[in-house]
Design goal:
heterodimer; A: 79 residues; 2 helices; 70% helix; elongated; B: 744 residues; mainly alpha; 19 helices; transmembrane helix (chain A); Mic10 (chain A); transmembrane (chain A)
């Protein structure tokens, strides 16, 4: 069902963003705790990175059908 | 022309003369002379030529009148001269071709006729006599022999005309001789061959009859004559015998010395013998007379037979004549023998008479001397006395003396007597010789005549044989010719008859064929009509059957299509129908021969077969969800597909309000291709049951909306296809059913 694809994609997006955010958060926290003396900027950075990645992934996922791939050969019909 | 020439000559001469310088006058004079002279000379020449031509023509005509050969030559060589001659002289005499053979024939006849005359001389009379007799049979004026010959002549002339090279020399003169005879007669009509043959047959028969009668006559005559002659000869022989016996007995009686009783018996026997002899002589004479009479009769019969002049009778006549001659000869010889015997007997009788006389005298003397002695004095030697003996001896001596004297006298007279006797004898001999000579001559003549006749007969036979061979040859030639002609005729007739037969046969055949053809045609027509009717009936039945079959099939098809329709209706709200495969299979089975149905059945999309199709209601329901989604991604397409655009499109969808359903226009303009409008059009059409239009409209979506509606579109397409096919099938089934129900 093509109409359910978007929903699925969006679900994936959300899931992915949640994961990414969480992972970013986590890593941010980790990095802030570990490396950056509990500054919040690595968390934000991590979150931001996580969000950005999730955004990009979502976008790519949504764009995927419109991408022209290299391995698709275009056959020109000889007139 | 002469004047022109002369003028030319004059001008030339003038020039020449002018050149020379002689004056013109002499030329003019000359010209006048020549002109006048030319006129007169031309006339002369013309007259001369006319005269020559006329003379030539006249001379030719005159000479042609005199000599027909010349006329013929001229007519042959110069065309139209025959007409001129006809005008001047009259028609030409016909060429005398026949004269030549006519001239030839008499010459030959003269040579041959002489021969014939010589040979025919003895027979000429008989020929005429024979010619006389058949006159009695009654043919017209010319003698039948001649007419026969004339017929033969005509016959032979026909053969002559047909074949001119077969006849021998002998036949031609003969035929020619006969032909001259018949030519002399004015009108010898050619009798038809049948009549000729009949006449010939008649004559042959008459001849045969005559011949048989003649031969019978001859035989009878011959027989009787022979019998009589034999009788005569026998009588003569008997007479001879009697005479001989008588003479012998007389001699015996005279010479023998028998006792008186025996002597008397002897004398009696002698008398008997004498009587016998006289009787037999008489008999013989009578027989001879009778025989002579018979012979004369026979001769008369033979002459009569000769008068008839039948060729075949001649040998018998000849034989009869010969027989006659021999009989005559025999008779004569026997008669001469009898006569000699008679003369001998006469001598002997004379001698015996003399002896008897002497004996009687002696006896008388003896009786006068010795009267008691009997006549028989041979056995009387014992009874006689010496006187008697002496007287007897004396008497005997006297007698002896007398005898001696007589003897001497006789001796003297002997010579005279002998001379006279000789002379008498000579005379008699002469007479006898004459008689004998005459008889011998007669006999010889007769024999010669017979021989001549025989020879004549032989030559006649030979001639006849030759003539027969020639005639046979002629006849053979004639038969050959006849055979050829008959063969040709036969062939012609046969070919004619065959032609006629063939033509009649063909006619009959064509008639028969026509009749049979007519019959056949009528029969064929009937048969064709019956067959056509049968065929019609069969076709009607077949068409009925077919129609029923078709009806059945249509019914089946319709049923299966109805089943398909029913399966189509089994769609639950969100589930597709059952797979249509079974129904389609049923359709395929039910209408295996129907190509249209088969095509339609195969035209169903495979998903519908395998999975089934969604119903319109489910699609309609599904559409709304799709509509929402399509609204939300309305802005997304290839160029705009970031997440921000997604947000914007969501925003747009939230903020934009369109009619829920809008009736789609007949033609879509550019601004109608907006997603929202399209979706409202599609909703409207869906609500109004037009899935097709809705699908078309949804097909116009672009970008993400399109991608979102893709599946729905596919399903809609499937459903639409299936529905189309099913509706076609049902329409077809209905049409077929309708057709089948309508058919009878």
């Amino acid at each position: 069902m093509s109409e359910k694809e978007l929903g699925k994609k969006l679900d994936r997006c959300l899931a992915d963003s949640a994961v990414k955010l969480g992972a970013g958060l986590g890593l941010g926290i980790v990095f802030s705790v570990v490396f950056f003396k509990r500054h919040t900027w690595p968390v934000a950075f991590g979150l931001g990175m996580g969000l950005g990645m999730a955004y990009t992934n979502c976008q790519n996922d949504l764009r995927a059908p419109y991408l022209i791939q290299r391995n698709i050969k275009v056959i020109a019909k000889r007139q | 022309m002469l004047r022109v020439c002369l003028k030319g000559a004059n001008s030339a001469a003038r020039k020449c003369l002018c050149g020379n310088g002689v004056p013109l006058h002499p030329l003019q004079q000359c010209r006048s002379y020549t002109s006048g002279g030319s006129g007169s000379s031309a006339g002369k020449i013309v007259a001369a030529s006319v005269l020559t031509v006329g003379g030539g023509v006249g001379g030719t005509i005159l000479y042609a009148n005199w000599d027909p050969k010349f006329r013929a030559n001229v007519e042959k060589s110069i065309p139209y001269s025959d007409q001129v001659f006809g005008l001047a002289l009259g028609p030409a005499a016909p060429p005398p071709v026949i004269n030549k053979p006519r001239k030839v024939e008499p010459v030959q006849i003269s040579s041959m006729s002489e021969m014939w005359k010589d040979s025919k001389q003895p027979k000429a009379k008989e020929v005429e006599k024979k010619a006389e007799q058949p006159d009695a049979e009654g043919p017209p004026a010319p003698a039948p022999q001649e007419t026969l010959e004339g017929e033969a002549c005509v016959f032979v002339a026909m053969i002559l005309s047909a074949e001119q090279n077969v006849l021998s020399v002998f036949c031609i003169p003969l035929a020619a001789a006969k032909c001259t005879e018949c030519e002399h007669e004015p009108a010898v009509k050619e009798r038809p061959e049948g009549e000729v043959a009949a006449r010939l047959a008649e004559q042959d028969k008459a001849e045969q009859d005559l011949l048989t009668s003649l031969s019978s006559n001859l035989e009878d005559a011959l027989g009787s004559t022979a019998k009589v002659t034999l009788q005569a000869i026998g009588a003569q022989e008997a007479a001879l015998q009697a005479i001989a016996q008588h003479t012998r007995q007389l001699r015996e009686a005279m010479e023998a010395e028998a006792p008186p009783d025996k002597k008397s018996t002897q004398w009696r026997v002698l008398e008997d013998a004498l009587s016998e002899r006289s009787r037999s002589v008489d008999e013989a004479g009578a027989a001879v007379l009778k025989a002579k009479a018979e012979l004369d009769k026979l001769r008369g019969v033979i002459d009569g037979a000769k008068h008839l002049k039948i060729a075949a009778a001649r040998p018998s006549i000849l034989a009869a004549e010969e027989n006659l001659h021999s009989m005559v000869v025999d008779l004569d010889s026997v008669v001469t023998r009898v006569q000699t015997a008679q003369s001998e007997a006469k001598i002997v009788s004379q001698y015996s008479e003399l002896v008897n006389e002497a004996k009687a005298q002696f006896q008388k003397e003896l009786n006068s001397i010795t009267p008691e002695i009997q006549a028989n004095w041979k056995g009387l030697t014992g009874k006689l006395t010496q006187d008697d003996l002496n007287s007897l001896i004396a008497h005997a001596h006297r007698r002896i003396d007398q005898m001696n004297r007589e003897l001497a006298e006789q001796r003297v007279r002997e010579q005279i007597h002998i001379d006279s006797a000789l002379e008498q004898q000579k005379l008699e001999d002469k007479k006898a010789l004459e008689v004998a000579v005459s008889t011998a001559l007669e006999h010889n003549r007769e024999q010669m005549r017979l021989e001549q006749e025989k020879k004549v007969e032989e030559t006649r036979e030979v001639m006849e044989a030759e003539m027969r061979t020639q005639l046979r040859r002629q006849a053979a030639a004639h038969t050959d010719h006849l055979r050829d002609v008959l063969k040709v005729q036969e062939q012609e007739l046969r070919s004619e008859a065959e032609e006629i037969l063939n033509s009649s046969l063909m006619e009959k055949e064509t008639e028969y064929r026509r009749l049979t053809q007519d019959q056949l045609d009528s029969f064929t027509l009937d048969m064709n009509a019956a067959y056509a009717r049968l065929k019609g009936m069969e076709e009607a039945i077949d068409s009925h059957v077919i129609a029923e079959e078709e009806a059945r099939k249509a019914h089946q098809l319709w049923l299966s299509v109805e089943a398909l329709n029913y399966t189509l209706k089994t769609a639950a709200l969100n589930d597709p129908t059952e797979p249509l495969e079974g129904a389609v299979q049923a359709i395929k089975e039910s209408c295996a021969e129907d190509e249209f149905a088969q095509a339609l059945a195969t035209a169903l999309p495979s998903e519908s077969l395998s999975r089934g199709v969604y119903s319109e209601a489910s699609l309609r329901a599904r559409f709304y969800a799709i509509r929402q989604l399509a609204r939300r991604v309305a802005l997304i397409d290839e160029t705009r597909n970031s997440l921000y655009q997604y947000f914007l499109s969501y925003l747009q969808a939230m903020l934009l309000f369109e009619k829920a359903q809008e009736a789609p226009p007949a033609k879509l303009s550019a601004e109608d291709l907006d997603t929202f409008k399209l979706l409202s059009y599609a909703a409207y059409s869906l609500e109004h049951g037009d899935l097709e239009l809705a699908a078309k409209l949804v097909n116009q979506l672009k970008g993400e909306s399109r991608r979102v509606a893709q599946d729905w579109l596919k399903e809609a397409r499937l459903t639409l296809e299936t529905k189309q096919v099913v509706s076609l099938l049902s329409a077809y089934a209905n049409a077929v059913g309708l057709g089948t129900t309508m058919a009878p």
